Design the sequence.
């Protein structure tokens, strides 16, 4: 290293906010019970210290798998928390990541620094270690903001689904009892990313239309919209 | 410190992407010429190492003022960059912040680790140190995404302004030559946050309507929309 930097340095951690859903359940979050001090036996987000040679996202995925067994998830960076005093071990900066997964597809087991691991409903949480309650709240706000301006969560539905199933998913993520059905349908269909694939069969009620999410079409629309904006500015939306 | 952590630690920096505008100009970004190695005499984002007892945002504002003289700006956290190898001094994590300011209100002068400071048009940039070109691109994308779903930049206009002035501001931020006038007006008025305050006087052409941005109304609408969503789900928008 030709240029050295000799001042004191903070420690660096990563934390993971993994939201889990499956049909009919409330929105849940994956927590671990800490096996060591500080905050021993307290519930916390999975996470830990970053190694000197690994990328931040790689560190987050490694800690998540070590402590909970959860792997193969698509995580996104949420926010970096660095207030002095947020950790009794001294100055510790934490880069937080988040993801939304189908919890039925992610069996958990505790190991490493975690003595237990559990999916908690987000409105029935235990007390959390460090500033993890704040990190979780920022993640909930981000997830709910995101679902309002881009299609997410389709991978949590069967490949073919009804609009009622999709609406149920959105209600669960947003934590609201019942979105207005007519508005929801109009808005979601207007996005132009659902493809009709048939009708329900063998049901007692009037069969509902089945849709699939057209990911290619979604990506094309997003690209076209950007190109249009650059070329002609026709599709400006606020 | 009851719990010590003895592993190697990365160094921690903050970097600031300060976008500047004034009427008629292209979107600009504030850069400094580095006074020291590494990358001596190369242009870079203002920034530097975080002190052990200061908050991340406070560190960003301190470095910005030390190096450029710019102060009293509202910065937001952008993203944290931590790829191994991004800095020749060893492992350095950088938390990036960004802001959009009226550059006429922020005179600059170089000091500290900066030998020069200059506002560059974002499509006429010099080569940048470290991974700062990447950080800047992430900031441009974030700014342009943000302007599409919430009102920003009103503080860069006179208190009373025409829709043409507002459209010019948006075109500058988005880097597009001409948004569709009819669409832009319809969308912006539909937001319900502009208040008519009169008409232009003493102009040769047909006088345009003057508006002001109703910040209280905007905050109330955002709150109502959220309350509605929680209570009745009537206003769901994707």
Sequence:
């Amino acid at each position: 290293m030709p240029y050295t930097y000799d001042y004191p340095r903070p420690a660096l951690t990563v934390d993971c906010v993994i939201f889990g859903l499956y049909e009919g359940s409330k929105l849940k979050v994956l927590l671990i019970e800490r096996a060591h001090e500080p905050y021993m036996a307290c519930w916390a987000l999975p996470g830990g210290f970053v190694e000197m040679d690994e990328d931040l996202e790689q560190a987050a995925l490694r800690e998540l798998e070590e402590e909970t067994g959860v792997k193969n998830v698509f995580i996104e960076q949420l926010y970096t928390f660095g207030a002095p005093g947020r950790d009794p071990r001294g100055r510790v900066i934490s880069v937080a990541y988040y993801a939304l997964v189908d919890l039925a597809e992610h069996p958990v087991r505790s190991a490493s620094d975690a003595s237990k691991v559990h999916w908690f409903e987000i409105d029935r949480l235990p007390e959390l270690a460090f500033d993890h309650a704040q990190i979780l709240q920022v993640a909930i706000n981000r997830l709910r903001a995101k679902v309002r301006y881009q299609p997410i969560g389709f991978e949590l539905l069967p490949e073919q689904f009804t609009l009622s199933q999709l609406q149920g998913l959105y209600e669960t993520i947003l934590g609201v009892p019942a979105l207005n059905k007519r508005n929801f349908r109009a808005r979601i269909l207007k996005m132009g990313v659902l493809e009709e694939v048939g009708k329900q069969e063998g049901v007692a009620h009037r069969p509902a239309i089945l849709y699939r999410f057209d990911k290619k079409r979604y990506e094309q629309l997003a690209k076209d919209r950007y190109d249009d904006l650059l070329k002609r500015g026709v599709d400006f939306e606020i």
Notes: The mean pLDDT of chain B is 87.
